[in-house]
Specification:
- By secondary structure, the chain is of the alpha+beta class.
- The chain is built from 1 helix and 5 strands; from the N terminus they run E-E-E-E-E-H.
- Strands 1-4-5 form a 3-stranded antiparallel beta sheet.
- The longest helix is centred in the last third of the chain and has 24 residues.
- It is globular and about 50 Å long.
Amino acid sequence: MSSKPKGPVPSLIGASNGKPTLVHVERKSTCKRCKTAIEAGQDCIAIPKLGGAHASPRRFCHDCFRSILAKTQADLNGLQALLING
């Protein structure tokens, strides 16, 4: 048996979400989290929801995406503490 794992390392964070992308809004949209308007011509962050019939992206304003990143970082810090303390 090989001691080296095969394939890419899976991510525990966002296993049901796809890769976030920067999207240029072509028509008025709303932020999925805070429901503020995202006007045409602005940029927003789209995070696809995987596992359905198709990956339907959820759009977030920059402020909400910052809070999502902060929460993700806090989760990662908690996981890292398991390694250090364990």
